[in-house]
TrEMBL record:
It is a lipid-anchor. One of its GO terms (molecular function) is protein serine/threonine kinase activity. The lineage of its organism: Eukaryota, Viridiplantae, Streptophyta, Embryophyta, Tracheophyta. It comes from the Eukaryota. This is non-specific serine/threonine protein kinase. It catalyses: L-seryl-[protein] + ATP = O-phospho-L-seryl-[protein] + ADP + H(+); L-threonyl-[protein] + ATP = O-phospho-L-threonyl-[protein] + ADP + H(+). GO terms for cellular component: plasma membrane. Residues 67-330 form the Protein kinase domain. Residues 1-47, 296-330 are annotated as: Disordered.
Length: 330
């Protein structure tokens, strides 16, 4: 692991658990009902956001042509996502939450509050929301390339899979977004829902983190640690080569690939104090990105690679924030 000195373990600070800082009751007072279209959301302390607009349900029904199936671009346990065009002419993504879905009123409030305050190129922008009666909808900027999950696990047969350099670009962008949440946001934010489905891509494959319903505020004052569940998974160390996505068909640089394995293995350590802080992960990923893979002119990427190995999966997230303080075990 010595090829990345920046990933060396740092001293672990005193740990304590902090509770969720947003309650459904205070959030309801913050949002209120969307009885009038075009209202701006009020931030705590009286400051007004210029970015979060309050929509009526009728506004969004018009924007999506009454939620027609042709405008449906995504669906999950939380509800449905539609492509729409609001009265300003802007194309947006509108997430309509299921009343009995996985994302309840509390998660809705947390996401609105978080995205009103947090602004970064690698975080999805919240255009507005709807809290009209019992309807709960979120309006985001539209991301033309969909989610990273669509490209990694269910690529269209007619399109080649993501090539190596694009994947590294996405990884760097995601890490920068997490760095902003851990080291710049005050108080720091624990994302807690890092998965490919929550990474959205624009036309140039720039990634943006979405879905902040499970996010928590991080340590403040003397508190230095937030502990949730931790289930790192790392397979047989002798089979690192099997971690490469079969869709790449071997078209990746061996040395940077091994460097990525080092980064992943450090992020998956059982002991939180051994894991690198996310800012150091960004440095390491930038080093990997500085070694791009050049595809031979006569090479072709097939759209139907062999099935992936069941053992070729690595998941996990760095766990510490500013000044080496432990933020979360996720």
């Amino acid at each position: 692991m010595s090829c990345f000195p920046c990933l060396s373990p740092r001293r672990r600070e005193t740990s304590s658990r902090i509770e969720d800082s947003a309650s459904a009751q205070s959030g309801s007072r913050f949002l209120g009902d969307s009885s009038e279209s075009g209202k701006k959301a009020s931030l705590p302390g009286g400051e007004t956001s210029k970015c979060a607009r309050s929509f009526t349900f009728r506004d969004l029904a018009v924007a999506t042509q009454n939620f027609r199936e042709v405008n449906l671009i995504g669906e999950g346990g939380f509800g449905r996502v539609y492509r729409g065009r609001i009265d300003s002419g802007q194309v947006v993504a509108i997430k309509q939450l299921n009343r009995d879905g996985l994302q309840g009123n509390k998660e809705f409030l947390v996401e609105v509050l978080m995205l009103i305050v947090l602004r970064h190129p690698n975080l999805v922008s919240l255009i507005g929301y709807c809290a009209d009666g019992d309807e709960r909808l979120l309006v985001y900027e539209y991301m033309p390339k969909g989610s990273l999950e669509d490209h990694l696990f269910d690529p269209p047969p007619s399109k080649p899979p993501l090539e190596w350099n694009t994947r590294i670009k996405i990884a760097v962008g995601v890490a920068r977004g997490l760095t902003y949440l851990h080291d710049v946001a005050n108080p720091p934010v624990i994302y807690r829902d890092m998965k490919a489905a929550n990474v959205l891509l624009d036309d140039d494959f720039n990634p943006k983190l979405s879905d902040f319903g499970l996010a928590k505020l991080g340590p403040v004052g003397d508190n230095t640690h937030v502990s949730t569940r931790s289930r790192p998974f790392l397979g047989d160390r002798r089979k690192f080569h099997q971690l490469a996505d079969p869709f790449l068909q071997g078209r990746y640089p061996p040395r940077p690939f091994h460097q990525l394995v080092v980064i992943a293995s450090m992020c998956l350590q059982e002991q939180p104090h051994v894991r690198p802080i996310i800012a150091d992960v960004v440095v390491a990923l930038n080093h990997v990105a500085s070694q791009p893979y050049t595809l031979a002119p006569d090479s072709k990427i097939m759209s139907s690679p062999p099935p992936p190995s069941p053992s070729g999966r690595v998941t996990g997230t760095p766990s510490r924030g500013r000044n080496g303080k432990t933020l979360a075990r996720i």
